[in-house]
Amino acid sequence: MTDEVFEQSSNQVSKRNLALLGLILVSIAPSISVTTGFVFQAGVLAVIVFVFTKIWVFGLPAFWHLRMEQQEFSWSPVEKGGWGMSLTLGVGMILVIWLAYFLLGEQMLQPDALKAILDPVGLTVPWKLAAAIVFWVFINSVLEEYVFRWFITSKIEQLVGGKWRSAFLSSAVFTLHHSIALIYFLDPIGAVIASLGVFIGGTIFSWLYLEYRSIWIAWVAHACADIAIFAIAWKIIIGF
């Protein structure tokens, strides 16, 4: 009996260590990419790092799940509902984001800095910006839910347990690389406020995932938030 208990305890420790290693390897990559691009402005190297880290954060979780943890493939089916809850929270986030911009936008945002960053990559051209928005809302945000909610949030849950603790910690990881980038788009007060907004949004997305166990439920709210943000960006860059 003692040997069985010891073996079970050893297996639990091994699983926790594996979860921790996977969490570290995935969670640091976005911050490395953003730091290379925005802090060091490393030019071609930044592009290389960006592409490599994108492949890393999207490929490693699947490899880790299928090979390292020997788990089955899943499309994260919606089995517990949650569409209405996610849409309600998403619409609420749209209203809050637009209200914050209406009240604080002129004090927070630096339109010239935003245009200076987007112009070299052609995103001040209407059709290119529209294409980027479609990509960000319908592809990138899904991939972010796959990485940050399914993989990172699940690994944190394995390590610390508890729905809210896991949601807060995973949101902190989600916020870190966003905050690094926001410093270059906003003034200091704006960056702090926006980072707080990202943290709250990330917590909502993580809670939705932990409550309903599907990235698609979390994605609905995430897409709503992105639509609100990109509508503001469109107004600044293109105008209505």
Folded structure, characterized:
This protein is mostly helical and 240 residues long. It has one domain. 83% of the residues lie in helices and 0% in strands. The protein has eight helices and no strands. The model has no long low-confidence stretch (mean pLDDT 89).
Report helical residue fraction: over 70%
* Overall number of structural domains: 1
**Straight-line N-to-C gap:** 72 Å
| Overall pLDDT | 89
Number of helices: 8
Large-scale geometry = globular
Report strand %: under 5%
Radius of gyration: 19 Å
Query: Which structural class do the helices and strands define?
Result: mainly alpha
Reading the helices and strands in chain order gives HHHHHHHH
Low-confidence stretches: none
Number of DSSP-assigned strands = 0
Largest β sheet strand count, sense and barrel closure: none
Features:
single chain, 240 residues, mainly alpha
Show the helix and strand layout:
Elements: H1 2-39, H2 44-68, H3 83-108, H4 111-118, H5 126-160, H6 163-182, H7 188-212, H8 215-237
Helix pairs in contact: 1-2, 1-5, 1-6, 3-7, 3-8, 5-6, 5-7, 5-8, 6-7, 7-8
Q: Gist?
A:
By secondary structure, the chain is mainly α.
